[in-house]
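Practice problem: predict the structure.
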Amino acid sequence: MRAYGSSDGRWPPLVTALVIFVVLIGIVQIASRAGNQPDALHHQFAASPPAPNAGQIVLPPVPTNLVALARTTTARVLGGLASAPINRVGRNEVMQVEISRIEPVADGLKLAGSVTNIGAAPIPVSLDSFKFTDATGTVYASTGSPATELQPQQTVPLDITLPIANASSLALAVEQPGQPVINLVLLQVAPTPTP
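Answer:
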């Protein structure tokens, strides 16, 4: 004979149904968030040698308050260590580009960061609009990179590899049609102080 209310080790059906319901809600929320995230922008860039007699690029002088940072950043990267760039964030009216990390790798440099739509309308973003230039004038660009459409306030991660040989100076220009160019100086050899 079984007494009313005794436990045989099983959950009551109402508790089981509640647990299943909560798990299903969680799965639906995770799936909907995953479906709304754009793919990361990642690509191996190719180098285009500078035009004959192009000379070296001339970057603006390092501001006095950033000289120590420029020396440390460039020395770390040239020494084989990861570092944050001199200028991390650039923006125009609709887009913010952040390069958060520069890391030497076997093939050159690996850059990590993000692109955010800071405007009020969706914008297409392609790595084809990213142009890197080193101290020799060599341009590193992507071709045929698919575009990702970013909704307002949406962010997509950047994962870029540059086959760069001379990492003493590196500048980035992001050119979106109809928008001002975003320029960032990522690496630059700062002048040595005179005694």
